[in-house]
Structure formats: structure tokens, C-alpha cells
Write a structure and sequence with these properties.
Elements lengths: L1 H17 L6 H67 L5 E7 L5 E8 H4 L9 H15 L5 E8 L6 H22 L7 E6 L17 H4 L1 E8 L1 H9 L4
Parallel strand pairs: 3-4
Antiparallel strand pairs: 1-2, 2-5, 3-5
Length: 242
């Protein structure tokens, strides 16, 4: 029975994620928090109730715990969603980047910022152009150095043109160039950037147009992900996240 309850909670979150494509991070976070908070609250409430009043206490505790869990989970999810909405709005002020709302591996709200390689680098090179440096400095000033409780991952991608080995190395070097510039020239803390990865021409990440043909320019890119750090999650759970 316990396994079924946990599975039901997981399925609720999955359904919420699949149906919220057009919703703001704030609203989506509230729904995710409500589902997960309710499931957790039910179990905790039942445990405490059983210790106090036996089986009848467990049943009452489950009901009370579910209600409390929903309230806490919804609040935490709303606060994280609101914070990510603000970060996304700040990133959208950048002319050289495409900003999208997404979710991280935990189902929490996150932000993806995509820089076209044509803006950042010369063809076949991994040295940042002067205009790229200016764009990244603005990105750091307005986003990363403001939302320091966001963890960051930087990913480099290539098109299928050229050899696989060359594209893998190039994507790795380009992702590293972005990380090194942000941390070395823009005041971004090294600890904020959790990973720097080059994926080369991995077919799972190539971009195709409506006709099914690869859009090589879109495939060549650097993506920067902002997602909730442990500190942000704890602050949201405590209700102190601003």
C-alpha cells in the first residue's frame, strides 16, 4: 500500500509536468509543490498520528499531515517558480540569447539560455569574439551575479558537419571558454557553475526544422541552465526565499 501511495504521488507530478507547457514557472511550481508536498505530508502525518493515538490517530494524522504538506509544498514550489520567472525575465533582456522555461532532473523549475555559436565564436574556433565577451559580461551582471542561489550548468553542442571527434573537442572547448570567461572575467563564482560539458554532435541534441532536415546553425550552440541550488530549495521550504 505504501508503494502505491508513493507511485500515485509520482504520477500526479508527472501529469502536472506534462500539462503545464504554457504556464509560468510560478504557477507550475505551485502545482508540483502541492502534489509532492501532499504525498510527503500524508506519510509524515500518519507516522506522528500513530505514535500519539494508535490507528485512529494515524488516520487523523494522515489527513492533517496531507493538508499541511500541501500548504508547505505549494509555498516552496511557488517561491522557486517565482524566483525562476525573475531570472528568466532578466535573461530575456539579452539580445544575443534565447530564453526558455524548463524543468530540472528533480522536476523543479529551471531556465535555459541558448547562445548561438555564430554569435560567440568564429567558424571552427573556440576563442570568444569581442561581441561574445560583451554579451556574456552582461549576462553575468544582470543574471548570474544577481541570482547567485541558482546553480549553473554550461553545455556545448555541434552540428553533424565535420568529424565526430573534431566536433566533440570543439564543443568541449567552447563550453569551457564560456565557463572560464564568466568565472575569470565576470565575477561569477566557480562554485556556482556545477558542470561544463561538451556533447559534440550527439544525435540526441541535434536540431531539426519542420521538414526533418537538420538546422546546422541551430545545432551549433552553447546552452546555459539555471536551476535551484540546495540553498534555494531549503530557503523555499523555510518560506524565506525572496
Amino acid at each position: 500500500m505504501k508503494g502505491l501511495k508513493v507511485w500515485a504521488g509520482v504520477m500526479c507530478v508527472a501529469l502536472i509536468l506534462s500539462g503545464c507547457g504554457g504556464m509560468s514557472n510560478t504557477g507550475k511550481g505551485a502545482l508540483i509543490g502541492t502534489a509532492s508536498g501532499g504525498a510527503a505530508g500524508t506519510g509524515i502525518g500518519a507516522l506522528i498520528g500513530h505514535l500519539v493515538g494508535g490507528k485512529s490517530g494515524a488516520k487523523k494524522g494522515a489527513i492533517i499531515g496531507a493538508a499541511a504538506g500541501v500548504a508547505v509544498g505549494a509555498t516552496a514550489g511557488t517561491l522557486i517558480g517565482r524566483k525562476m520567472d525573475k531570472a528568466a525575465a532578466a535573461a530575456k533582456a539579452l539580445e544575443a540569447a534565447q530564453v526558455e522555461k524548463t524543468t530540472d532532473s528533480n522536476g523543479l523549475d529551471a531556465v535555459k539560455v541558448t547562445f548561438d555559436n555564430g554569435i560567440l565564436f568564429a567558424v571552427g574556433k573556440s576563442s570568444l569574439t569581442p561581441s561574445a565577451q560583451a554579451s556574456l559580461k552582461k549576462f553575468a551582471t544582470n543574471v548570474l551575479n544577481v541570482y547567485t542561489d541558482c546553480d549553473v550548468s554550461i553545455c556545448g553542442f555541434a552540428s553533424s558537419d565535420g568529424s565526430e571527434a573534431t566536433n566533440l573537442t570543439l564543443s568541449q572547448n567552447r563550453a569551457a571558454a564560456v565557463t572560464n570567461y564568466l568565472t575569470g572575467n565576470c565575477g561569477v563564482a566557480n562554485k556556482q557553475i556545477k558542470s561544463t560539458i561538451g556533447y559534440g554532435e550527439d544525435p540526441n541534441y541535434l536540431v531539426y526544422n519542420a521538414s526533418g532536415k537538420e538546422d546546422v546553425n541551430a545545432s551549433r550552440r552553447v546552452e546555459v541552465y539555471l536551476y535551484a541550488s540546495d540553498a534555494m530549495i531549503k530557503a523555499a521550504e523555510a518560506g524565506t526565499l525572496q
